[in-house]
């Protein structure tokens, strides 16, 4: 299986929630890329892809090929977004940033850094200021990704998108530390595993 495509209407009766539990469950279980498409989305050729990252993933072991293929075939631009928490990147994170620069060197891409209190706020802010057609994230345990989804609705900061969401499966190393400091401090909690987003 090369790709799973799911339509999603979100949770019943919760208008502000994007994904229901079935979609979230699939995101956590599938071993290939998953494309989640909001029910009201009208297709258009993607021109800009947004890829939020804390550079804490070993990208050499993750399936980024599908992203490069989209960029090449659709003549898109890739915006790589890092949230600035005021902490310098570790040596590992710098290595991953360099890997991305080399990996996408033949494509149109840009690095961005935004100072926000959380990743969801940064993503929302970037979408407000820039045209984004597709959101891409790597689903790695112990990264900010899983904490976006397994959290009580009452504590939801507001991770709401109206565009397709491409989730890449976890296959490589992930770390949350910037020089030994956990940058997921805005996400960590004992979230119930049956929570919806």
TrEMBL record:
Residues 2-38 form the UspA domain. Gene3D superfamilies: 3.40.50.12370. It comes from the Bacteria. It holds the Pfam family Usp. This is UspA domain-containing protein. It comes from Salinimicrobium marinum.
